[in-house]
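batch job 7 of whatever, protein = Flagellar motor switch protein FliN
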Amino acid sequence: MSVFDKIEVEVSVVIGRTHMPVRHLLKMGRGAVIDLDAKHQDPVWIYANQELIARGEIVLVGDRIGVTVTERVRRAE
């Protein structure tokens, strides 16, 4: 087993954002739709351990959704 096999990374993809009161969020049930400020062609933000690392595009792979990395984001040092 390699040292890298033991490292865990949480990857998150943000496809859009919205603002809503908590009371609306609590009223939502299964199948509810949340309107976001993004269009289908807009880039998504890819985070690793809550740090922005790249931008990408949503792709459909059969019946699954994936993300293609289009741009790496360099850290300011």
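notes: The radius of gyration is 16 Å.
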